[in-house]
Amino acid sequence: DIQMTQSPSSLSASVGDRVTITCRASQSISSYLNWYQQEPGKAPKLLIYAASSLQSGVPSRFTGSGSGTDFTLTISSLQPEDFVTYYCQQSYSIPRTFGQGTKVEIK
Amino acid sequence: EVQLAESGGALVQPGGSLRLSCAASGFTFSNHWMHWVRQVPGKGLVWVSRINSDGSTTTYADSVKGRFTISRDNAKNTLFLQMNSLRAEDTALYYCTSTNAVAGYWYFDLWGRGTLVTVSS
């Protein structure tokens, strides 16, 4: 199984800050990497697919990059609704695996 | 409206069985591979199972293989998860999710709200 490791597990930031979340795969997954956002008590929502493609309707302040084993999700200017949890997920192989999540908290 | 709606979650004793359903609407269900993903409240997401668009191919996580069965009824736009020999560690919120792909890059594009399964005596 491919292990996905996110860092940090949590971070504190302020509205307007630029933040970066990292996801590392235990083996190369090319660009088969997706990012999801999850609000408390709600289902995950797709933000980025294929490492860097923005899902329709997702604000442009979210960008994804990387390939191989190292990936990043960047939020260019944090908005109040962005203080939630983010997950990476690989779609290179079965079983599909997720990172452990990164919780973005208000400083 | 495009949506998935899970049902069937409940409190069940260890060793018991449960059947989850996921009703799809607003899109062509029969065109999509479907998956189940679970989440212990407050914890991360864990993939459980998948089924192809016509129901002929299924795959399972090792933790549920031999105990869970995924199936679908395309005429009724419904996905199922039959869960047998349930264990305490199966306690979680179960989401159904549809998949889409662009140029071979697969992703979970639509999620239901989840249904809670609690395994406890």
Summarize the structure.
The complex is a heterodimer of chains A (107) and B (121). Helix content of chain A is 0%, strand content 50%.
How would the blueprint of this fold be written?
The complex is a heterodimer of chains A (107) and B (121).
Chain A: E1 4-7, E2 10-13, E3 19-25, E4 33-38, E5 45-49, E6 53-54, E7 62-67, E8 70-75, E9 85-90, E10 97-98, E11 102-106
Parallel strand pairs in A: 2-11
Antiparallel strand pairs in A: 1-3, 3-8, 4-5, 4-9, 5-6, 7-8, 9-10, 9-11
Chain B: E1 3-7, E2 11-12, E3 18-25, E4 34-39, E5 45-51, E6 58-60, E7 68-73, E8 78-83, E9 92-102, E10 105-111, E11 115-119
Parallel strand pairs in B: 2-11
Antiparallel strand pairs in B: 1-3, 3-8, 4-5, 4-9, 5-6, 7-8, 9-10, 9-11
Describe the structure.
The complex is a heterodimer of chains A (107) and B (121). Chain A is mainly β. Chain A is built from no helices and eleven strands. Chain A has strands spanning 4-7, 10-13, 19-25, 33-38, 45-49, 53-54, 62-67, 70-75, 85-90, 97-98, 102-106. In chain A, strands 2, 4, 5, 6, 9, 10 and 11 form a seven-stranded mixed β-sheet that branches. Chain A has a four-stranded antiparallel β-sheet with strand order 1-3-8-7, with no helix packed on it. In chain A, a hairpin with a 3-residue loop joins strand 5 (45-49) and strand 6 (53-54). The radius of gyration of chain A is 13 Å and the shape is globular. The N and C termini of chain A lie far apart (36 Å). The model of chain A has no long low-confidence stretch (mean pLDDT 97). The radius of gyration of chain B is 14 Å and the shape is globular. The model of chain B has no long low-confidence stretch (mean pLDDT 97). Chain B has 121 residues and is an all-beta fold. In chain B, strands 2, 4, 5, 6, 9, 10 and 11 form a seven-stranded mixed β-sheet that branches. A four-stranded antiparallel β-sheet of chain B has the order 1-3-8-7, with no helix packed on it. Helix content of chain B is 0%, strand content 55%. Chain B starts with a strand and ends with a strand. The interface between A and B is medium-sized, with 24 and 22 residues.
